[in-house]
Design brief:
Blueprint lengths: L10 E7 L10 H13 L9 H4 L2 H6 L15 E9 L2 E8 L4 H21 L11 E4 L3 H12 L18 H7 L6 H4 L12 H6 L3 H13 L1 H5 L9
Antiparallel strand pairs: 1-3, 1-4, 2-3
Length: 234
């Protein structure tokens, strides 16, 4: 897939998966480390040592700890949405600086690969080539993309699309999944420092309405997914 030209203040769906479809998150610490990296590498300034600031226990008990005692970052991008799955990830980014997305994704990919390879005593690339990117330019794409990304974890429970209509337990499942920005979008503090949620929450009229809209979208999930034109990740 040919990458679009990245332009300031445009929104892009960014995604990638593990090489040979391998899992890139093997335990809780891996998820926490990647989420920490989303925050730490989103900075024009050079990151000297992410290990110095990374504290998985603090992220668990006080997820906004990243904001405390730190110099203001010079953001490369706004991270609007994220979801991490065992073998892939989705991001929705808004570029803030020239070449911001390229710089951010290079830092993120290299940093996490170095962490993963050192931890699991492996060598070589971790991701399946360079990241994929799609410009969000249509209103229908803008509307449906957040729901598609935030409900992606539901696919972990079954290989076949589950029957969503009328099932309130589905929303309960989403609220138990920590490795996305969904909880912060519906008012449950999870990793609030990582994302900029104002744009989508204003569009969907707040946290409660976003939660309700997600539930309604799930009732007609197959129709909603038709509006997402890019390749799905298995």
């Amino acid at each position: 897939m040919q990458k679009p030209q990245f332009v300031e203040n445009q929104i892009y769906h960014i995604y990638n998966r593990g090489v040979e479809k391998r899992n890139i998150f093997l335990d809780k610490q891996d998820y926490l480390r990647f989420i920490h990296s989303l925050f730490e590498f989103n900075n024009e300034n050079t990151t000297i040592n992410t290990l110095f600031h990374f504290n998985s226990q603090a992220m668990e008990t006080e997820p906004h700890y990243l904001e405390k005692g730190r110099k203001p970052r010079k953001l490369l991008v706004e991270i609007l949405i994220f979801t991490l799955m065992p073998n892939h990830f989705h991001l929705v980014l808004k570029q803030k600086k020239e070449k911001g997305i390229i710089k951010f994704m290079q830092k993120l990919g290299t940093g996490y690969t170095m962490y993963f390879n050192k931890k699991y005593k492996r060598v070589g690339g971790l991701f399946q080539g360079r990241f994929k990117a799609v410009l969000v330019k249509d209103e229908s794409h803008f509307i449906h993309l957040p729901f598609y990304i935030h409900t992606n974890p539901l696919e972990l429970k079954t290989k076949k699309p589950p029957h969503y209509r009328g099932s309130t337990s589905i929303m309960g499942s989403l609220e138990k999944y920590r490795w996305s920005s969904f909880l912060d979008y519906i008012g449950i503090k999870n990793f609030p420092s990582v994302t900029s949620r104002e744009l989508f929450l204003e569009f969907f009229n707040g946290q409660e309405q976003y939660k309700n809209a997600t539930y309604e979208w799930l009732k007609n999930k197959e129709e909603g997914e038709k509006e997402i034109k890019e390749i799905k990740i298995d």
